[in-house]
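Annual report, structural modelling task.

Input specification for the FE2/S2 (inorganic) cluster complex:
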Amino acid sequence: MADLALTLNVNGKSHTVRVHPLARLLDILREELKLTGTKEGCGEGECGACSILMNGQVVNSCLIPAAQAQGAEIITVEGLAEGEKLSPLQAAFLTHNAAQCGFCTPGMLIAAQDLLNRCPNPDENQVRDGLSGNLCRCTGYVKILDAVKVAAQEGSSR
Amino acid sequence: MRSYLPDFDLQVPDSLGEALALLTQELGQYRPFAGGTDLMVLLNAGLLPAARFLDLSRCQELRGIQETSTHLSFGALTTFTEVRDCKAVHQHFPNLVKSARLTGALAIQNRGTLGGNIANASPAADTPPSLLAYGTEVELISLRGTRRVAYEAFHQGYKKMDLAPDELLQRIIIPKPLGRTFHFYRKVGTRQAQAISKICLAACARIENGTVAEFRIGLGSVAPVPARARNAEAVILGKPLEALPIEEAQLALLADISPIDDIRSSAHYRRVVSQKVLGQMLRELSQSSF
Ligand SMILES: Cc1cc2nc3c(=O)[nH]c(=O)nc-3n(C[C@H](O)[C@H](O)[C@H](O)COP(=O)(O)OP(=O)(O)OC[C@H]3O[C@@H](n4cnc5c(N)ncnc54)[C@H](O)[C@@H]3O)c2cc1C
Ligand code: FES
Ligand code: FES
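The model returned the following structure:
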């Protein structure tokens, strides 16, 4: 079956790759574009480690087939910092020790950034709702919630 | 193990007409693909036989929520997020908003569709109980034309639907409840997000002169298909709010359900908890002020 010429804009840069139309966006990002910040935890939409922003919405890249990403604008965790300068959200994660092993962190940052973009001053429930698709096996979540709330207070929407 | 992709194909027709033509020309060869939140999981887990999919995402006719004076009509591709964000849905169908909010988590709600939730035909899906409680109709389309089916007749048995191989689910049409109405939705799962229901109950009642004039209960995860609780409804219909025969309705409910033991729960738990959630709903109904 014929491959697809997939054109994507990832973190502001345009790429064209030839892939199977059902190839997972996760694999395209990691293996074709070598953007390995995005992680695979479960491969079934449960854990959020593969979260990215697609056309401004948080999605699980393990569930997106290449054909549905045609022409899409994608932001991965690599797109949050500006050069060496961490985004306010990333800086807050660092100061509040919101990462231990760090495997969930790229997905957490993306889901949190999506939340702050939609809702710059979230209350506790909104933060929990925004992060409810992201599992963390290390931190117990408290420090992650703290970091997101502090970043919100400091004004972290982009 | 993950599926071997060369065994699979995904076509992306540019319009609904093109999609229907493909379905018709190669009858039974294509499987519709909407948000992919059910299909990609199966594909990633290697649980699908070699298959050809038809991506519906460019079929504009399957998108959008339209409002008339009497109904809301949802394109089959309406996502849970669009349901959550639509003011008219909040106003007329609060149960549907709750179902959408409790489906998976945000990333799933951004991709998963109402049409996919229905056509995946899981008895544990979370919008069907709400759709049953609101007297929904579904509109099916093929090159032969369109037809409407009462949603409660659409599921004919476990994973069996009144949907021909050349048909697509086009729209989901719900009448706006009239008069004074009571709405209730409760999903019982292991946790709030990302949990598949152990049981789910939605209800909508119309109250007239202090009595229950119209009443529908939809249930999930307690039968091979999403099911109406007709026996329990019949006990309550026509009764005054201050004297609802709650225990009688709880007994009658047992004739409406046929739960099973599975990995998420047991038949016993499901029977007991359905009765309790029914009781909770009826107590709220009896205390509602109209
Ligand atoms: C992590 C996770 C959590 C989830 N949590 C929940 C939950 O809490 N509650 C719940 O109910 N579901 C849940 N789901 C299941 C899934 O998200 C929903 O069933 C969703 O509505 C499926 O819609 P879709 O568009 O993604 O369907 P797809 O995967 O694209 O398709 C599903 C099925 O419907 C058919 N289909 C789709 N559209 C049409 C159409 N227009 N006409 C004919 N056939 C069609 C397809 O052929 C396929 O058989 C979850 C899934 C994941 C991965
Ligand atoms: S890897 Fe995609 S949600 Fe877990
Ligand atoms: S820091 Fe290890 S999973 Fe979250």
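DSSP finds five helices and five strands in chain A.
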